[in-house]
Amino acid sequence: MKKTSRRGHSTLNELNITPLLDLVFVLLVIFIITTPQMINSLEMSLPSGKPPPPVPEDQKPKINRIVVDDNGQVFLNDVYVPDDKIREKLDGLKRPT
Asked: Has this prediction a pTM greater than 0.70?
């Protein structure tokens, strides 16, 4: 007579959750990858391959030259300016023409 054990014929009492965990991890990875793209609302203006338009000659700023010589005399654009008139001349240069 053959001896049989009950272990070989018993039913499976535990549920195999490995496939469920695989599915949960795949969904989690998909969620992590897609969420930052939905939230990112940063607007960028990317540079184009075209060169910038040329600046017309009339828009170039005028360069003023101030020189103080060894004697302490001040020259603005090669014109002597007395000490008491320096502030007035510089204020005049700040104002748009």
From this structure: no
